[in-house]
Write a structure and sequence with these properties.
Elements (H helix, E strand, L loop, with lengths): L3 H16 L4 H8 L3 H9 L6 H7 L12 H7 L5 H23 L13 H27 L4 E3 L14 E7 L2 E8 L14 H9 L10 E7 L2 H8 L10 E8 L4 E9 L14
Parallel strand pairs: 3-4, 4-5
Antiparallel strand pairs: 1-2, 2-3, 5-6
């Protein structure tokens, strides 16, 4: 991705052009955006969200010098929805290809003739789900303008005690963000739609990870029942980590909810940040 410093500098120039001959305060008032937000963005110290940029480029804001909303979005590193998804998909493939080359002989091949049809079906579904979810996560990061670098060492589904995706990231104290992707097949035999035992196993696997106080871990799930089961235990888990659960809507291909289950500093929620 483009470096944050370069994006900040380019966006600063675009916002300055949009302000034209007005004062910062007048432009902020016309845009219905706080003075400090415009000041920091024009100075290059802050990259506003797409919603703020929409206000800065709105008809009421009267952007000058022909500056448009698209100009601001491009300068800020944002894209339209289709482009974001395309970029995320490319990133996923690049990450996977790069780590496959590194793993070499460690790559696991599945002999379809020797695998039970149901198990193979589940494996294929799990693999395809993980690929899609990784794209959804990266697209959400791009939309939020959260800058990241992959430190991925891709793990097979057989290595369930390792994160499925690792990113270097700078968000306050956090320097790493680990994602543990879990696929749950629906069942009508219990209130949560899946076996509570399977949910507890997913949580137990967290104990095998070794995060630091600068690491955030997110369990990514595809089932609303699993999500509700987990959030009922928010901040009650005997676990010391920045740990959250993320719900992904498979049909809409988007992150729909996220909630913290625990924090490294038990009484301090100041470092929490979200994909939605």
């Amino acid at each position: 991705m483009a470096k944050k410093e370069n994006i900040s500098k380019e966006l600063s120039s675009v916002i300055r052009a949009a302000r034209g001959d007005r004062s910062l305060r007048d432009y902020a008032n016309d845009s219905d955006v706080s003075y400090m937000t415009v000041y920091k963005a024009e100075k290059g110290d802050y990259i506003p969200s797409s919603n703020i940029l929409k206000k800065l480029a709105s008809e009421n804001a009267k952007p000058q010098n022909g500056v448009t909303y698209d100009d601001m979005m491009v300068a800020a590193g944002y894209q339209d929805e289709n482009a974001v998804s395309d970029v995320a998909s490319v990133l996923v493939e690049q990450m996977r290809e790069g780590t496959s080359e590194k793993q070499g002989s460690q790559k696991i091949d599945i002999n379809k003739e020797d695998t039970k049809p149901r198990l193979l079906q589940h494996r294929n579904a799990r693999e395809e789900y993980q690929r899609r979810v990784e794209g959804v996560i990266l697209a959400a990061l791009l939309r939020r303008n959260i800058f990241f670098r992959s430190t991925q060492e891709y793990n097979s589904y057989l290595k369930s005690n390792q994160p499925d995706m690792k990113l270097d990231i700078e968000m306050g104290r956090i320097r790493e963000w680990w994602f543990v992707v879990r696929y749950f097949w629906e069942s009508k035999n219990n209130r949560y739609g899946v076996s509570p035992m399977n949910i507890r196993i997913a949580l137990t696997n967290m104990l095998f990870l070794h995060p630091t106080k600068e690491t955030k871990i997110s369990i990514v799930v595809n089932n609303i029942g699993v999500y509700e089961y987990l959030i009922k235990r928010a901040n009650e888990m005997p676990y010391r980590s920045e740990l959250s659960v993320i719900l992904v809507d498979e049909e809409k291909q988007e992150v729909t909810a996220e909630k913290y289950l625990s924090n490294y500093f038990f009484e301090d929620h100041g470092e929490e940040f979200y994909l939605v």
